[in-house]
Design goal:
about 25% helix; 15 strands; Deoxyribonuclease I, Chain A; five-stranded mixed β-sheet; six-stranded mixed β-sheet; alpha+beta; about 325 residues
Length: about 325
Amino acid sequence: MRIATYNVEWFNNLFDDDGVLLDDGGWSGRWDVTRAQQTEALGGVFTAMDADAVMVIEAPDTSRKRDGEQALEYFAAWCGLRARKALTGFHNQTQQEITLLYDPDVITAVHDPLETPEFPRFDAKFRMDVDVDATPEVIRWSKPPLEVAVTTPNGALRLIGVHAKSKAPHGVTNPDAIKRVAIENRRKQMAQCVWLRGRVAQHLAAGDDLIVLGDFNDGPGLDEYENLFGRSGVEIVLGAEDEIRLFDPHAQMVLGRRVGAQPATARFKRKGEPYLSALLDYVMISPGLRTRNPKWQIWHPFDHPDIFANLHLRAALLLASDHFPVVLDIDL
């Protein structure tokens, strides 16, 4: 079975309010890319992946006027994808949903949010002292994780789709303010990861097969503020040495490493400066799934040899989004 996560930059801009693709020459949300160009590129990437399930991050919006599931299913039909059924959990106000696109002939999937007194549902509030003033702050998810109960031909599986808070100080230019906002955002992002780890620990204690996948906006060694907190949010979700741990080989590659070659799942354009690459997207699996012959691939257009040699797919990945898919092939 092939399970992937893919952050599609401003997917929502490619649809009208009826969920129909705007396959035209108007500008998409991507810099200097038309809607037709991005739509064609995404069609090429999704078709090439041919996944049984894709956790789409920044999926089309669901609101009073829009239906993101309808939009994604229209896109799947337009592409002729096997993964043609869409499932969204708690809706948010950011126009960037977390939606599972899956093949209903292979799996069944239902939104199944859990809660405990200590770790509530992800659309609720979580209290944690993030600034060490002995007063817990209220933490919320702007994009609540999508908890999915999946039935495969060989049994049950849990998926949690994640889009954690960005740590970037968007819209801030003053150097002191940049530092203050960056630290504040990191505190909130790490609190979200503590909340998420609570749910992960619940599943691992129950012996569930679990995959946590999506965009964490974080990773080991990603910024200089990590030293203030001891570890990254990704490391929190993976688990400490004395806990039952999740595993992602790309996170493992960079743990404790500050120099040398590192994998990347995103490539950001900066005006007048070189591109910035970062490892932000992960597919983490529980211990039992590590016995199922898992194989991970980042579909990076320059780092993956087969994709680099495929000129059409390479170009499509560069046009489609500023993130690249992370693909897991596993015996399920």
